[in-house]
Amino acid sequence: MDVSDPATPAPSPSSPSAAAEAAGSGSVPLPALSIAYSPCPNDTFVFDAWAHDRVPGAAAPRVTFADIDVTNGMAERGELDVLKVSYAELPWVLDRYTLLPCGGALGRGCGPLVLTHPGSSGTPSPAGLSGKRVAVPSERSTAYLLFRLWAADEVPGGVGEIVVLPFHEIMPAVRDGAVDAGLVIHEARFTYQNYGLHCLADMGEHWERTTGLPIPLGAIIAKRELGAETLGALAATVRASVRAAWQDPSVSRPYVLAHAQEMDPAVADQHIALYVNEFTENLGEDGYAAVRGLLDRAAEVGLVPQLPAGALDFP
């Protein structure tokens, strides 16, 4: 396997150097924190520099790799200092955690897909999913929340049984007929044809068409009890780690490929290019609008609790 060709770095706006921002004029040094994120290429790419003690002024974190359904549960139990979770999970954890304005996955053209097997009967269109068995990566994943908003518009009477599976098990389950359809995320966008599957619908396309907003997927959260100074140093460290990865993608290459579910370097490159973008470095006005839009829309139809005012503000 050739791992020498680095992913194309995303453009980074003019800003202080990664080291300078991480050190932060007058900011506190970042202690060793506990963090959990997925083994997917976007997360390992983003956190490589920090995880390997290459961000000045920040101690390397204690890393746990876990699927999103697991990290969502960790957040609900308050188990770690920093977590990658679903944006859909925020209404249940923002009393204890705060949303970081960087490090997550949000963008355009990167939404979850609903996959079916071309040989299955009764599912040639979204309406054909009525009463069917659908596998999803987590009942509190953003993918599933987007799916529920889509199904309310497109699937008369709604789907049938929802089965939660680790995301890497979903495509085989659809292929083998264990479920009628599967909701997939991450690199499955680039590999589902290898399983002989058909893309029935793109949740991100539906979201962008009906709202005009980018698609919020995964968020980085940190415990509020860390305090404003440490949280500020954490955000600066995450941004520095992102910029370091963009500056020289070849450095993160071994870490990315060692943990990727899909080991094809070309697929890892596509994954990183799609999910690590300007919103990863800074959510910005459009990013926050997307997050508020998703959670407000879901709350209006009773899918999640309503967020209190100021819940998304970063200290």
Kindly report the average pLDDT value. 88
Individual helix count: 13
Largest beta sheet, briefly?
6 strands, mixed
- Count all strands and give the number: 11
Q: What is the H-and-E element order?
A: HEHEHEHEEEEHEHEHEHEHHHHH
**Strand content of the residues, in percent?**
5-15%
User: Unreliable segments (pLDDT under 50, ≥5 consecutive)?
Assistant: 1-26
Question: What is the approximate shape?
Answer: globular
Q: How many angstroms does the end-to-end distance come to?
A: 45 Å
Radius of gyration: 19 Å
**What is the quaternary state of this protein?**
single chain
Helix content: 40-55%
Kindly name the structural category: alpha/beta
Characterization of the model:
Strands 1, 2, 3, 4, 5 and 11 form a six-stranded mixed β-sheet that branches. A five-stranded mixed β-sheet has the order 8-7-9-6-10, with helices on both faces. It starts with 17 loop residues before the first helix and ends in a 15-residue tail after the last helix. Helix 2 links the parallel strand 1 and strand 2. The protein is globular, with a radius of gyration of 19 Å. Helix 2 packs across helix 10. With 315 residues, the protein is of the alpha/beta class. The N terminus is likely disordered. The chain contains 13 helices and eleven strands.
